[in-house]
Please model this.
Amino acid sequence: MSLYNLLSQKKSDILERWREVLFDGYAPETARFLKSQKDRFANPIAYQLTRGLSGIIEVFLQGAETDKVMAQLDEVIKLKAIQEAPPSQAMAFIFILKTIIREELAQELQDPACAAEFVDLESRLDGLALLGFDVYMQRREKLCDVKVGEIKRKVSTLLRRLGLGDDYLEEQSGG
Model:
């Protein structure tokens, strides 16, 4: 039996462990809430994280194309980007998956016949992490654009209140 078939069979256990570890990365009070509150409307963060993790496992096992993988990664990473987690912390969840998979497949990995397939599996997980960094940077860039737009609107409003108008900035910048 292939490692991917074994992963498919153990998917729900892997997902549950991955979710638990991810939730444990939050402050204790937050982690308790994320784990205990099952209503998707009362606990949208846990719902989105669970949906994202589940989607990541699905597209990973299917060997889906890059766009689909990035869309699933985005479900988790957009929360990390909004929470302003540094890239290393934001992407740690993928490396946690790698550890969980090693633990879940520990017995099977002792068989030398699985070595080549495991190298492929780890390489694909590394590729998943690299795509995740791309998604994280795209999200951070969008957040920066939103912040810059907000600052421009505030400055423009202030200039109008002062009677200087929007042309004032162009004159000051030499335009």
